[in-house]
Amino acid sequence: MVTKARSTLSWVFSVFRTRDRTVMITLYKSLVRSLLEYCCPLWDPTRVTEMQMLEGVQRTFTSCIGGLKDMNYWERLVHLQLMSLQRRRERYTILMMWKILHNVVPNCCDIEFIDTSRHGTKAVIPSLSKCSSLRNQTLYDSSFAVRGPKLWNKVPAAIKAEKTFDGFKVSLSKFLALIPDNPPVSGYTCSWSNSLVDFTSTRWSDI
User: Helix (H, G, I), strand (E, B), or coil: what is residue 121?
Assistant: First the structure.
């Protein structure tokens, strides 16, 4: 996947001489990023090395846009108003959870939802035996049945209450834009994993 995306990115750079921001972003979104996000709710990686490989493609792209070479990757994302690939994958997972809740797609993982007065509709996180092996724990943590509910439960109740998919998408995107987006990339150090799953109550107070 990464190899194919990098190959396509190289083709774009070789065929199109312009480095105009609008043209390059349009080409990147339609030809390259789509390769890196196909069916991503099913395979969203949790290993840092895998996330770095994926993020490296977008990092390379943004470094080739005129006038941005002196910025680091995180600064370029803000300047170009782009989400990291990690944040976009989590956004897609949350969107899929909305579809499951509203029966737009089949609930293949048998995810359960409960209504609460304080947090709105919450998803039930399936339990795992304390005696499970480390390998099973890793598989459990990375599965959609677990990550989906964890991410859904981080979304404010008012946004989860949106009744239309388009309205939910817009509200979710505005909410995510408030949260610092510093994905794991080689050579960069971040104080947290950048995953919404790990965004604590103390960090909520910062925004």
Answer: strand
Q: How many angstroms from the chain centroid is the CA of residue 112? A: 22
> Do the Cβ atoms of 93 and 144 come closer than 8 Å?
yes
Q: Which pTM does this prediction carry?
A: 0.88
Residues recorded for the chain: 207
Separation of alpha carbons 43 and 46, rounded Å: 9
| Secondary structure letter of residue 32 according to DSSP | I
**What amino acid occupies position 153?**
N
Q: Per-residue pLDDT tens for 107-149?
A: 999 999 999 988 899 999 988 777 777 777 777 778 899 999 9
Is the Cβ–Cβ distance between 115 and 67 less than 8 Å? no
CA distance 13 to 15: 6
Sorted by sequence, the CB contacts under 8 Å of residue 96 that are 6+ apart come out as 41, 105, 144, 148
- 193's enclosing H/E stretch is none
